[in-house]
Design a protein that fits this description.
By secondary structure, the chain is of the alpha+beta class. The protein has a domain of 193 residues: Beta Barrel (Lipocalin), CATH 2.40.128. It is built from 4 helices and 14 strands. Strands 1, 4, 5, 6, 7, 8, 11, 12, 13 and 14 form a 10-stranded antiparallel sheet that branches. β9 and β10 form a beta hairpin. The radius of gyration is 20 Å and the shape is globular. 28% of the residues are buried.
Length: 291
């Protein structure tokens, strides 16, 4: 079992311990409710900017886990047989095997130039050994996904993340400052922001090569540039990210758009991430990460 599977199992068991039965758990958000939240007036700051402040929830955690009640009263968390009628590789099905993008990917896979396809396959085959996100390192951008909390001022925006690998932050100037010079390359890069109407546009550069864009060997170079857009609509934020890396990609890769919604549930310090099970891996299989 991979470290990720152990984390999933622990997270699910912790989330459901002492609560109602699994079968009685309902979705925390529905498309209908999202549309309703988006029709509310968009709050604004005194300077007229759309107010991005708040704690934001989204479908980016462990929704791909489908706990199942088995005979005898036990519960299957990961590696479960697909429910009746589930498509192979689709929602509700067990995670894909290493070796390439799943048959029904959660994300559209980046398009690599032909000369780099062998490298992508090799990294995908060895994901549980070489993917730094499975070794407690920061996921990188855009793989980390949208923020869990936003703190906005007239000069900058702070993005806070409650991630399974730890608590991360990004400080994004919005007062016209350029990218900083002389910084070492990093997992989350160097960001600057600007406003286009009610949309915050964040440009990030200066990445190291230790992260991937997504699962299944989606590597990038130090030339990676990521542009994120966060647009407040009522009590929701529409989030999208585009990765530009012309050295290896045929075209810019647009990650799936996501909807965020306001929540009164405050984020907490992430639990310690500790990698202890590489020696216990049996076959190199791993689930498909929805981030």
């Amino acid at each position: 079992m991979t470290r990720t599977s152990l984390l999933i199992a622990a997270a699910v068991l912790a989330a459901f311990a002492g609560t109602m039965p699994l079968a009685a758990q309902g979705p925390r958000m529905t498309p209908e409710r999202l549309k309703e939240l988006a029709t509310k007036p968009t709050p604004r700051l005194p300077n007229g900017r759309a107010d991005l402040n708040g704690t934001w929830d989204h479908f980016g955690g462990i929704e791909f886990v489908r706990p199942q009640s088995l005979e005898g009263g036990s519960v299957c968390v990961v590696g479960c047989p697909p429910p009746a009628g589930a498509r192979a590789g689709g929602p509700g099905a067990p995670g894909g095997r290493a070796g390439g993008p799943p048959a029904t990917p959660v994300l559209d896979f980046p398009k690599y130039k032909p000369e780099f396809l062998a490298k992508v396959k090799d990294l995908s085959d060895r994901q549980v050994q070489v993917d730094t996100m499975l070794q407690c390192q920061p996921p990188g951008v855009p793989r980390i996904g949208p923020p869990a909390k936003i703190v906005q001022s007239a000069r900058e925006v702070v993005l806070l993340y409650d991630d399974i690998n730890g608590s991360f932050f990004r400080i994004i100037p919005t007062d016209g400052r350029p990218h900083r010079k002389g910084l070492p390359a990093s997992y989350l890069g160097d960001s600057v922001g600007r406003y286009e109407g009610d949309t915050l546009v964040v440009e990030t550069v200066n990445f190291n090569e230790d992260t991937w864009l997504a699962d299944n060997g989606a590597f990038h170079t130090t030339d990676l540039r990521v542009v994120e857009r966060l647009r407040r609509v009522g009590d929701t934020i529409q989030y999208e990210a585009v990765a530009h890396d012309p050295a290896v990609l045929v075209e810019p890769w647009k990650e799936r758009s996501q909807a965020l919604w306001l929540t009164d549930r405050e984020i907490e310090e992430s639990p310690r991430c500790e990698d202890r099970d590489l020696d216990l891996i049996i076959d190199g299989s791993h689930h498909n990460n929805p981030r």
